[in-house]
Sequence to fold (607 residues):
Amino acid sequence: MSVNNISQPDKEIVVGIDLGTTNSLVAFLKEGRPVVLQSREGRALLPSVVSFVSGHPEVGFKAKKNKVRDVQHTVFSVKRLLGRDFSDLKAIAKDLPFELVSGDGVIKIRVDNSEYSVIEISAMILKELKRTAEEALNCSVTKAVITVPAYFNDSQRQATRAAGRIAGFDVLRIINEPTAASLAYGLDQKKQGLIAVYDLGGGTFDVSILRLKEGIFEVLATNGDTRLGGDDLDLALARVFALEIQNKTGVDPFLNPVFQAALLEAAEAAKVELSEKESCQISVQLGPDHYQRVVTIQEFEKLIAPILDRTSEPCLAALRDAGIEAKDLTDVVLVGGPTRLDAVQNQAQTVFHRIPNVSMHPDEVVAQGAAIQADILSGNNSQLLLLDVVPLSLGIETYGGILSPLIDRNTRIPALAKEIFTTFMDYQTAVDIHVLQGEREKVEDNRSLARFKFPVHPAVAGTARVEVKFLVDADGILQVSARDLRTGAEQTVEVSPSYGLTEAEIQAILKASAENAPKDAAYRQWVAVKNDAEPALRAAEKKLPDAFRLLSEGEVKVIEGCILGLKTAIHSESPTEIQNSLYSLNESTKKLADLLLKEVLSTNSRR
Ligand code: AMP
Fold:
């Protein structure tokens, strides 16, 4: 559904944005339903094209028209370049006719004498969407959720976020396009499932396999073809037209860029018509000549079959990588303009053995999903939908250099956890709160996020009570606070736990954690027995003067030997040795403990 001129809402608006390679859209949630906002001209789709023909940037349909008239001053498909550096360029820049230059390793686009970064161009598109939203809603719009392909790495996501910021948005969240599409279809309500999202856009094909578990989407695998989309269907048809013209006139019209563009435009219009009709008439003026003909659906489908067939292999590879078979899928979601064609729907059905969901607008479904997520983040939605999880466990360092997790990996956010810790030394005046992220036992094997000293009321070891609270908000920002339960004194620090960690880094941490699990478990056991042994050792040493007073020389010698034995065992790193030495020490001090107890009792009875 698309809307325009919505009266000013009384609650804060957070919009959802689909920043696409070919087209972009902005949507918001109106009375519980996502609606795509239209420009003043009544258009929902904004071509992701910026042209500098008139000297200043123009975005959208006008710019798209200039793509035909003035290629040199028109920039398109910048999403392919977003977050990439100049070294990636060879692989992606082949199809882009504008001039790309390196600016400190960052890709820049040269138009006449000016250079624009890819982020700046993306920001121009986002700014236009912001304007559309503000005009349609008649209020200022400053907060947004922006979608990105599931395979986007950290740098591509950060670049998207930066573009949003330059456009004047506070980007509340970057979410995966297939997740947004699944949300728009309400699949999260099912709580469980395996979903294939088949996204055929203008120039790219993406397939993602998602697992939905307890309302959380997890991307299991992605695949695709960065040079396959609706444009290829237009090109195939336009080539047929060109061949016919050449056969008649002896001249290939594709040699003239303006004629080529006109034939491509006619082919695209035919494709769009054929998604609803059995045949269509095309008519193109090429200089003094006029070309017209009828295109039937049979002819078109035969022509595009080999192109659509190219989507099968990436789908099968994604299923393989996800470790599932097509029969395991619970849903197939189609995204992208060309999925309106029956031939595309049939192709998806054949590869996934399941009738795809096509009830929603395939161009709008990603923006609609983003709008649903946006509404959740705005706090307007009381029925909180939880989409994200903590990627790695969060915890604090405890005595012995061990990570004690407070929030486990994969816990849904927002998340809150509290635990009470105590001091280990007598009359400690402060505790060192060291916040860590990771799956390993030893502190040094995890990632240090923050460290702060928290003053505590001095007391005997083990009697202070410090409550440590971890709160991860919906943006993944962690707030750690510590409170001395005796005095009520509190201190809070804020950390960004996943900042700077790419998905690959997260995966590497998880892999290391699995590989080192037995070693880590042994270490934890060693620390645990050491933590029992050290206070016992200190107590025994403290009582040595009493031992000299109350025990025989031989008995004292045994205790001294056991103290030494335990000290050596602690350095041995063998939990069994520590346990045995601790046992011996306890045995050797039993008589002393009894005598001391008797002394206390007799002193008390005399009082
Ligand atoms: P998207 O990237 O999802 O915006 O898709 C853009 C592509 O969808 C372009 O190639 C359009 O020509 C194509 N498209 C839009 N509407 C239709 C339609 N009704 N039938 C077939 N293709 C369409």
The CA atoms of residues 81 and 118 lie 7 Å apart. The radius of gyration is 33 Å. Residues 20, 22-23, 201-202, 229-231, 268, 271-272, 275, 336-338, 340-341, 363 surround adenosine monophosphate (CB under 6 Å).
